[in-house]
Amino acid sequence: MPTYPFMQVDAFTTQRLGGNPCAIIFKADDLSDAQMLAIAKENNLSETSFVLTPTRTDAKLRYFTPAEEIPLAGHPTIATIFALVETGYLKLTGEVTRISLELTAGIIPVEIHATNGVVQKVVMFQKKPQFLATIPAAEVMPVFGLTVEDVLPNVPLQIVSTGTPQLMIPVRELDALRRIQIDIPAYTALRDKTKFFCPHVFCTQGVTPTGNTFARDFGVPPDSAEDPFTGSATGGMAAYLWRYGLIAQPTFIAEQGHWMGRPGQAQVEVVGSRDDIETVKVGGSAVTIIRGEMVL
User: Fold this and answer.
1) Which residue, of 10, 11, 46, 253, is most buried by count of CB atoms within 10 Å of its CB?
2) Partners of 226 in the beta sheet?
Protein backbone atom coordinates (compact mmCIF):
# COMPACT_ATOMS: atom_id res chain seq x y z
CA MET A 1 0.00 0.00 0.00
CA PRO A 2 1.40 3.43 -0.92
CA THR A 3 2.20 5.71 2.00
CA TYR A 4 2.63 9.48 1.98
CA PRO A 5 4.29 11.62 4.67
CA PHE A 6 1.62 13.76 6.31
CA MET A 7 1.48 16.80 8.60
CA GLN A 8 -1.20 19.05 10.00
CA VAL A 9 -0.18 22.63 10.70
CA ASP A 10 -2.17 25.45 12.27
CA ALA A 11 -1.59 28.68 10.31
CA PHE A 12 -1.92 32.35 11.26
CA THR A 13 -1.30 31.53 14.91
CA THR A 14 1.51 30.92 17.38
CA GLN A 15 -0.69 28.69 19.55
CA ARG A 16 -1.58 25.10 18.77
CA LEU A 17 -5.28 24.55 18.14
CA GLY A 18 -5.62 28.17 17.05
CA GLY A 19 -5.74 29.75 13.60
CA ASN A 20 -6.67 27.60 10.62
CA PRO A 21 -5.56 23.95 10.37
CA CYS A 22 -4.16 22.65 7.08
CA ALA A 23 -3.43 19.04 6.16
CA ILE A 24 -0.26 18.61 4.09
CA ILE A 25 0.46 15.56 1.93
CA PHE A 26 4.08 15.22 0.76
CA LYS A 27 5.43 13.39 -2.33
CA ALA A 28 2.01 13.64 -3.97
CA ASP A 29 3.10 13.54 -7.65
CA ASP A 30 1.42 10.21 -8.38
CA LEU A 31 -1.96 11.19 -6.94
CA SER A 32 -4.76 11.90 -9.41
CA ASP A 33 -7.08 14.88 -9.14
CA ALA A 34 -9.84 12.54 -7.96
CA GLN A 35 -7.59 11.10 -5.25
CA MET A 36 -6.57 14.57 -4.07
CA LEU A 37 -10.21 15.60 -3.79
CA ALA A 38 -11.05 12.38 -1.93
CA ILE A 39 -8.18 12.99 0.50
CA ALA A 40 -9.38 16.55 1.09
CA LYS A 41 -12.84 15.17 1.87
CA GLU A 42 -11.27 12.63 4.23
CA ASN A 43 -9.35 15.33 6.10
CA ASN A 44 -12.48 17.51 6.20
CA LEU A 45 -10.57 20.75 6.77
CA SER A 46 -10.91 24.05 4.91
CA GLU A 47 -8.03 22.98 2.64
CA THR A 48 -5.56 20.18 2.13
CA SER A 49 -2.20 20.97 0.51
CA PHE A 50 -0.36 18.59 -1.83
CA VAL A 51 3.41 18.93 -2.28
CA LEU A 52 4.62 18.17 -5.80
CA THR A 53 8.08 18.07 -7.38
CA PRO A 54 8.93 21.53 -8.73
CA THR A 55 10.42 21.99 -12.19
CA ARG A 56 10.80 25.77 -12.38
CA THR A 57 10.41 27.05 -8.81
CA ASP A 58 11.58 26.21 -5.29
CA ALA A 59 8.30 24.53 -4.42
CA LYS A 60 5.08 23.45 -6.15
CA LEU A 61 1.74 23.03 -4.36
CA ARG A 62 -1.88 22.31 -5.13
CA TYR A 63 -4.77 23.07 -2.79
CA PHE A 64 -8.13 21.30 -2.48
CA THR A 65 -11.16 21.98 -0.35
CA PRO A 66 -13.53 19.05 0.29
CA ALA A 67 -15.52 20.30 -2.73
CA GLU A 68 -13.00 21.55 -5.32
CA GLU A 69 -9.49 22.70 -6.18
CA ILE A 70 -8.68 26.30 -5.29
CA PRO A 71 -6.03 28.13 -7.35
CA LEU A 72 -4.53 30.24 -4.54
CA ALA A 73 -5.05 30.16 -0.79
CA GLY A 74 -3.42 31.85 2.16
CA HIS A 75 -3.39 29.53 5.12
CA PRO A 76 -2.23 26.47 3.12
CA THR A 77 0.68 28.55 1.79
CA ILE A 78 1.73 29.68 5.27
CA ALA A 79 1.28 26.19 6.72
CA THR A 80 2.99 24.27 3.92
CA ILE A 81 6.03 26.53 3.61
CA PHE A 82 6.45 26.28 7.39
CA ALA A 83 6.25 22.47 7.12
CA LEU A 84 8.72 22.34 4.22
CA VAL A 85 11.28 24.19 6.32
CA GLU A 86 10.61 22.04 9.37
CA THR A 87 11.12 18.83 7.35
CA GLY A 88 14.29 20.14 5.66
CA TYR A 89 12.81 20.29 2.16
CA LEU A 90 13.47 24.02 2.07
CA LYS A 91 16.70 25.44 3.51
CA LEU A 92 16.93 28.79 5.24
CA THR A 93 19.57 31.16 3.90
CA GLY A 94 19.48 33.77 6.68
CA GLU A 95 17.03 35.94 8.56
CA VAL A 96 14.94 36.32 5.37
CA THR A 97 14.83 33.51 2.81
CA ARG A 98 13.14 34.31 -0.50
CA ILE A 99 11.68 31.54 -2.65
CA SER A 100 9.37 31.19 -5.64
CA LEU A 101 6.25 29.08 -5.28
CA GLU A 102 4.21 27.54 -8.09
CA LEU A 103 0.46 27.36 -7.51
CA THR A 104 -2.40 26.63 -9.87
CA ALA A 105 -2.94 30.43 -10.03
CA GLY A 106 0.67 30.98 -11.12
CA ILE A 107 4.05 31.70 -9.58
CA ILE A 108 4.28 33.93 -6.52
CA PRO A 109 7.18 35.07 -4.31
CA VAL A 110 7.31 33.99 -0.68
CA GLU A 111 9.50 35.26 2.16
CA ILE A 112 10.44 33.13 5.17
CA HIS A 113 11.46 35.19 8.20
CA ALA A 114 13.53 33.33 10.81
CA THR A 115 15.47 33.99 13.99
CA ASN A 116 18.34 31.64 14.90
CA GLY A 117 17.06 29.11 12.40
CA VAL A 118 13.49 29.12 13.71
CA VAL A 119 10.72 30.32 11.38
CA GLN A 120 8.83 33.27 12.85
CA LYS A 121 6.68 34.27 9.90
CA VAL A 122 5.90 33.26 6.30
CA VAL A 123 4.84 36.03 3.93
CA MET A 124 3.12 35.36 0.62
CA PHE A 125 2.93 37.91 -2.20
CA GLN A 126 -0.52 37.51 -3.72
CA LYS A 127 -1.37 38.18 -7.38
CA LYS A 128 -2.10 41.69 -8.67
CA PRO A 129 -5.65 42.44 -7.52
CA GLN A 130 -8.52 42.32 -9.98
CA PHE A 131 -11.63 44.31 -9.10
CA LEU A 132 -14.47 42.41 -10.73
CA ALA A 133 -18.27 42.46 -10.65
CA THR A 134 -20.26 44.48 -8.16
CA ILE A 135 -23.48 43.08 -6.70
CA PRO A 136 -26.38 45.12 -5.26
CA ALA A 137 -26.52 45.08 -1.46
CA ALA A 138 -30.24 44.30 -1.60
CA GLU A 139 -29.40 41.07 -3.40
CA VAL A 140 -26.60 40.05 -1.04
CA MET A 141 -27.43 41.08 2.52
CA PRO A 142 -30.61 38.99 3.07
CA VAL A 143 -28.52 35.90 2.26
CA PHE A 144 -26.63 36.58 5.51
CA GLY A 145 -29.66 37.58 7.57
CA LEU A 146 -28.60 41.23 7.41
CA THR A 147 -30.08 44.40 5.91
CA VAL A 148 -28.84 47.02 3.48
CA GLU A 149 -28.47 49.35 6.47
CA ASP A 150 -25.76 47.05 7.87
CA VAL A 151 -23.50 47.72 4.86
CA LEU A 152 -20.69 50.26 5.16
CA PRO A 153 -21.95 53.23 3.12
CA ASN A 154 -20.49 54.67 -0.10
CA VAL A 155 -18.56 51.56 -1.19
CA PRO A 156 -19.63 48.67 -3.44
CA LEU A 157 -20.09 45.01 -2.66
CA GLN A 158 -17.54 43.66 -5.10
CA ILE A 159 -15.76 40.48 -6.13
CA VAL A 160 -12.01 40.96 -5.74
CA SER A 161 -9.36 38.43 -6.75
CA THR A 162 -5.71 38.25 -5.73
CA GLY A 163 -5.63 34.75 -7.19
CA THR A 164 -9.04 33.51 -6.04
CA PRO A 165 -12.26 35.55 -6.49
CA GLN A 166 -13.86 36.52 -3.15
CA LEU A 167 -16.97 38.64 -2.52
CA MET A 168 -16.12 41.64 -0.34
CA ILE A 169 -18.95 42.61 2.04
CA PRO A 170 -17.98 45.52 4.33
CA VAL A 171 -20.29 46.10 7.30
CA ARG A 172 -20.50 48.99 9.73
CA GLU A 173 -19.60 47.24 12.99
CA LEU A 174 -18.82 44.01 14.80
CA ASP A 175 -22.45 43.60 15.86
CA ALA A 176 -23.46 42.95 12.25
CA LEU A 177 -20.88 40.16 12.03
CA ARG A 178 -22.30 38.59 15.20
CA ARG A 179 -25.85 38.61 13.78
CA ILE A 180 -25.09 36.69 10.58
CA GLN A 181 -27.45 33.80 9.85
CA ILE A 182 -26.84 32.08 6.51
CA ASP A 183 -29.76 31.20 4.23
CA ILE A 184 -28.06 28.22 2.60
CA PRO A 185 -30.28 27.86 -0.51
CA ALA A 186 -30.04 31.61 -1.17
CA TYR A 187 -26.29 31.54 -0.57
CA THR A 188 -25.84 28.66 -3.02
CA ALA A 189 -27.92 30.44 -5.65
CA LEU A 190 -25.94 33.69 -5.21
CA ARG A 191 -22.61 31.89 -5.46
CA ASP A 192 -23.67 29.93 -8.54
CA LYS A 193 -24.89 33.11 -10.21
CA THR A 194 -21.91 35.37 -9.46
CA LYS A 195 -19.05 32.81 -9.43
CA PHE A 196 -17.14 33.91 -6.33
CA PHE A 197 -15.30 31.34 -4.19
CA CYS A 198 -16.42 32.58 -0.79
CA PRO A 199 -17.83 35.71 0.87
CA HIS A 200 -15.61 37.83 3.12
CA VAL A 201 -17.81 39.79 5.53
CA PHE A 202 -15.69 42.26 7.48
CA CYS A 203 -15.50 45.51 9.40
CA THR A 204 -12.70 47.93 10.20
CA GLN A 205 -12.61 46.99 13.88
CA GLY A 206 -10.54 44.31 15.55
CA VAL A 207 -11.66 42.12 18.44
CA THR A 208 -8.38 42.63 20.30
CA PRO A 209 -6.42 45.85 20.93
CA THR A 210 -3.92 44.93 18.18
CA GLY A 211 -6.44 44.16 15.42
CA ASN A 212 -7.55 46.61 12.74
CA THR A 213 -10.07 44.39 10.96
CA PHE A 214 -12.22 41.38 11.78
CA ALA A 215 -13.89 39.08 9.29
CA ARG A 216 -15.99 35.97 8.82
CA ASP A 217 -16.04 33.61 5.80
CA PHE A 218 -18.65 30.98 5.02
CA GLY A 219 -19.18 27.88 2.91
CA VAL A 220 -21.71 25.11 2.44
CA PRO A 221 -21.26 21.31 2.68
CA PRO A 222 -19.08 19.53 1.85
CA ASP A 223 -16.89 22.59 2.57
CA SER A 224 -16.61 23.99 6.09
CA ALA A 225 -19.56 26.03 7.30
CA GLU A 226 -17.16 28.75 8.47
CA ASP A 227 -13.44 29.24 7.86
CA PRO A 228 -11.24 30.09 10.86
CA PHE A 229 -8.86 32.30 8.86
CA THR A 230 -8.95 33.04 5.14
CA GLY A 231 -5.63 34.32 3.84
CA SER A 232 -6.58 34.79 0.19
CA ALA A 233 -9.71 36.75 1.12
CA THR A 234 -7.65 38.80 3.58
CA GLY A 235 -5.49 39.82 0.63
CA GLY A 236 -8.54 40.75 -1.42
CA MET A 237 -9.93 42.69 1.55
CA ALA A 238 -6.65 44.59 1.93
CA ALA A 239 -6.70 45.62 -1.73
CA TYR A 240 -10.35 46.67 -1.38
CA LEU A 241 -9.71 48.70 1.78
CA TRP A 242 -6.76 50.50 0.20
CA ARG A 243 -8.46 51.16 -3.16
CA TYR A 244 -11.57 52.68 -1.60
CA GLY A 245 -9.76 54.74 1.04
CA LEU A 246 -11.05 52.78 4.04
CA ILE A 247 -7.58 52.58 5.63
CA ALA A 248 -5.12 55.43 6.01
CA GLN A 249 -2.00 53.26 5.98
CA PRO A 250 -1.22 50.29 3.70
CA THR A 251 -0.20 48.06 6.61
CA PHE A 252 -2.51 46.59 9.24
CA ILE A 253 -3.34 43.58 11.43
CA ALA A 254 -6.22 41.37 10.27
CA GLU A 255 -8.07 39.15 12.75
CA GLN A 256 -10.42 36.22 12.21
CA GLY A 257 -11.61 33.08 13.97
CA HIS A 258 -11.80 34.37 17.53
CA TRP A 259 -15.54 33.65 17.90
CA MET A 260 -14.89 30.09 16.70
CA GLY A 261 -12.34 29.50 19.46
CA ARG A 262 -9.54 29.51 16.87
CA PRO A 263 -8.10 33.06 16.99
CA GLY A 264 -5.95 33.98 13.99
CA GLN A 265 -3.93 37.01 13.00
CA ALA A 266 -2.15 38.14 9.83
CA GLN A 267 0.23 40.98 9.12
CA VAL A 268 -0.90 42.61 5.89
CA GLU A 269 0.74 45.10 3.53
CA VAL A 270 -0.62 46.57 0.30
CA VAL A 271 2.07 47.49 -2.23
CA GLY A 272 1.32 50.21 -4.79
CA SER A 273 -0.90 53.24 -5.17
CA ARG A 274 -4.65 53.10 -4.51
CA ASP A 275 -5.29 53.14 -8.27
CA ASP A 276 -2.57 50.65 -9.20
CA ILE A 277 -1.98 48.03 -6.53
CA GLU A 278 0.94 45.76 -7.42
CA THR A 279 0.54 43.03 -4.81
CA VAL A 280 -0.70 42.32 -1.31
CA LYS A 281 1.64 40.71 1.22
CA VAL A 282 -0.08 38.47 3.77
CA GLY A 283 2.08 36.99 6.49
CA GLY A 284 1.62 34.89 9.58
CA SER A 285 3.06 32.31 11.93
CA ALA A 286 2.35 28.58 12.10
CA VAL A 287 2.71 25.61 14.45
CA THR A 288 2.79 21.86 13.79
CA ILE A 289 0.06 19.81 15.43
CA ILE A 290 0.32 16.34 13.75
CA ARG A 291 3.08 14.33 12.06
CA GLY A 292 2.55 10.95 10.46
CA GLU A 293 1.78 9.19 7.21
CA MET A 294 -1.24 8.59 5.05
CA VAL A 295 -1.87 5.04 3.81
CA LEU A 296 -3.84 4.54 0.57
Assistant:
1) 11
2) 218
Q: Do 88 and 168 sit in the same domain of this protein?
A: no
Instruction: Give me the catalytic one of 47, 102, 226, 255.
Output: 47
- Residue 232's identity, in one-letter code, is S
79's CB contacts (< 8 A; 6+ apart) are 9, 10, 11, 20, 21, 22, 24, 49, 286
- Cα 26 versus chain centre, distance: 20
Same domain, 224 and 270: yes
pTM score, whole prediction: 0.97
Active site residue 139: no
Q: What are the tens digits of pLDDT across the range 35-93?
A: 999 999 999 999 999 999 999 999 999 999 999 999 999 999 999 999 999 999 999 99
Q: Classify 171 as helix, strand or coil.
A: strand
Closest CA to 39 of 14, 75, 3, 72: 3
Residue 246, domain extent: 130-280
